[in-house]
Amino acid sequence: xxxxxxxxxxxxxxxxxxxxxxxxxxxxxxxxxxxxxxxxxxxxxxxxxxxxxxxxxxxxxxxxxxxxxxxxxxxxxxxxxxxxxxxxxxxxxxxxxxxxxxxxxxxxxxxxxxxxxxxxxxxxxxxxxxxxxxxxxxxxxxxxxxxxxxxxxxxxxxxxxxxxxxxxxxxxxxxxxxxxxxxxxxxxxxxxxxxxxxxxxxxxxxxxxxxxxxxxxxxxxxxxxxxxxxxxxxxxxxxxxxxxxxxxxxxxxxxxxxxxxxxxxxxxxxxxxxxxxxxxxxxxxxxxxxxxxxxxxxxxxxxxxxxxxxxxxxxxxxxxxxxxxxxxxxxxxxxxxxxxxxxxxxxxxxxxxxxxxxxxxxxxxxxxxxxxxxxxxxxxxxxxxxxxxxxxxxxxxxxxxxxxxxxxxxxxxxxxxxxxxxxxxxxx
Length: 428
Description:
The protein has eight helices and 22 strands. By secondary structure, the chain is α+β, with helices and mostly antiparallel strands. The strands form four sheets. Strands 6-21-22-20-19-16-17-18 form an eight-stranded mixed sheet, sandwiched between helices.
């Protein structure tokens, strides 16, 4: 399958990038679109489904490919449904990719993308993938929503691949407590960025950043742990999240899973796949607030050890604060690649990695493999970089045994993966 940066199938721009072209839609691709062809040229079509015949509106002419929206459905797929949100569709809000697909159909599309990436990039067509739903349904799950103010001071969400703001009265995938804040009825400075956070504990928090390009000091609006807190800088606002039977205190603008059930689901998958044994040593790389370290510490027992590595100073501070009662857990604030380049970081039994979308990269993969862990748990929100790193692990003696997938972002193209990599006997 071709991706939007893959120009092998078409090496010149489409000569007749006219609106109104009718195409037959092919397979889903990584990125929230499906692949079609017109006169031999690749067209990445949003708001379509495999097998449909649609009329398109061209949105972008790239080098060797087109981007387009399906603006008229001539032959619909059985999986097609009416979008529940009035702001979903061509030219509207770009936050949701699959509102026109049934929830079960969305999960099948995501599984197809993961399988395609593992097949084409990692050379692993043999692994079955089923995307599992999380509790709560397809709407009202998102606990962190970032809005932008348009020229009239009205909050909205961005169009797909654009800085343009689409005013909205409410976002249907937002947590009900965020929808209830009525932020979109207020007027804000043009260009202001407003983020609403619904933590597991306490009241919702609202953060406002400076106007883009302006000098206004960032302020924080709303309530923090039940106390009025007007005027604090966003970096000073803290919230409490809950997972693996404990609480984590993190920055309100820091990283945490946006689906209420995701943290527990991913942590349970990591522990189940790695099978930690009492007394083993583990590394939690890109560890954030220490979710996976906390989950592993119990099975590893009092003689086990977990080292969390996190480069962000606020994330590392959150981990130290939240895991202070676990004597077997150590937190190191460092870049992962820099830490692993230190020869003092010797052998380890288990490694958990939860990198950003850019993935690990070849050097970090090689550094992990050089420590000879018996198993690696790889948590990823990007099938493409996950598959790339799986292929690199294969070159240094680690095989992907299984992958679990979770629909932690319903209505969007995104999916969370947990893969188990194990050392191959006799590998170099």
